[in-house]
Amino acid sequence: MEDEAVARVKAEETQAMKDDAQRDLNQALPAVEKANEAISRLKKESIGEVRTFTKPPHMVEVVMQAVCIMFEKKKDWPSAKLLLGESDLINQIRNYPKDNIPESVLRDLKPYLQMSNFNYKDILQSSVACASLAEWVIAMDMYAKISKEVEPKRKRVAAAEADLRSVTEQLKKKQLQLQQVESKIKELQESYDHQVAEKKKLEISIMQTQSRLKRASKLTTALADEQIRWKENVTEFNEQMKTVTGNVFVSSACVAYYGAFPSSYRLELVENWVEGCKEHKIPVSDNPSIINVLADAFSIRQWVTQGLPRDDFSTENAILVTKGRRWPLIIDPQEQANRWIKNKEKENALKIIKMTDGHFLRILENCVRIGMPLLLEDVGETLDPALEPILLKQTFMSVEFEDEKDPSRNG
């Protein structure tokens, strides 16, 4: 902090010196700018007019001698005419190095500037161009004198700037060292924080592991009996795999054909199918059950919760409803299946309609289009012909591409 304060004070002192020197130079700048503006306004015709003089007026010759001195040319009229003939003379005058005018030039100009009539007003009577050139020579001389007076201040500013650079470099070195120290401290702090976090993680991990070991020990004890049951299940599943082909065939036949029959006739159909499998050497169980093959205990419990009766006949019917590819027609005088379907499809936004409803077809079409479940109640012996494509699954999807429609059938 102390080094920064020293550098800041040094910078302020140096800037004050520069400002003081610049203020002195600024006294001459308006005259220089005014002279340059006058030069910029000069036209080539005015300069060319001066060149045409064979024997120029006295003050014109005097001014051109002064201009030749400024450009370190010979002080005669031929040299002046050559200088006036240069195409970029005006740019040379505007870009004249006013901060580096040689002492010899200033010394040679002195007699001319001491002439009482060496001024813009008097020379204007002889030539507009030479009046502007004279004004420029006077401004350059004034600037050079002030610049010479300011030179000691410039040297002091240069020395102060050198000191400031030295102080600034030292400050930068110390700031770099400080930055390195702070970076090292930050690195150590991050390492410490990381180690503390790792320690906490390990402590938590130890606690979790100990807790898991306790639970695992309890679970191992509790699952000792389960291991026996699992082994029995594996043996049972291996036996079932031997007859899975025939059992699946019989179950598929059940779904396809025996939905409309009572329990006794269903049992007779199954017995016939089992005999057929055995005749054709298809492995099959002696008493295959559609419930064991196509349902699981969880699904059956859900159905019962949703209102399905607990008997095997109702469970078989539920399997036919959920596994069959055709739309089920349910004869339900006690409305047990009706309640079960409503509860089962409630969360799927089930739509319930009758053939007599006024918007029957519109609701039906919306359900087909959106894919919503639909329960059609009070169906009689005859059906509306509009239902035939739905029941036969003769529906299709149409996909629109820009203005064209490309229907593709979907069985």
TrEMBL record:
Cellular compartments per GO CC: dynein complex; microtubule
Record has Coiled coil as a keyword: yes
Keywords: ATP-binding, Coiled coil, Cytoplasm, Cytoskeleton, Dynein, Microtubule, Motor protein, Nucleotide-binding
GO molecular function: ATP binding; dynein intermediate chain binding; dynein light intermediate chain binding
Keyword Coiled coil: yes
Coiled coil: 157-219
Dynein heavy chain ATP-binding dynein motor region domain mapped to chain residues: 301-397
PANTHER family associated with the record: DYNEIN HEAVY CHAIN 6, AXONEMAL-LIKE (PTHR22878:SF68), DYNEIN HEAVY CHAIN 6, AXONEMAL-LIKE-RELATED (PTHR22878)
Protein name from the UniProt record: Uncharacterized protein
Organism from which the protein derives: Rotaria socialis
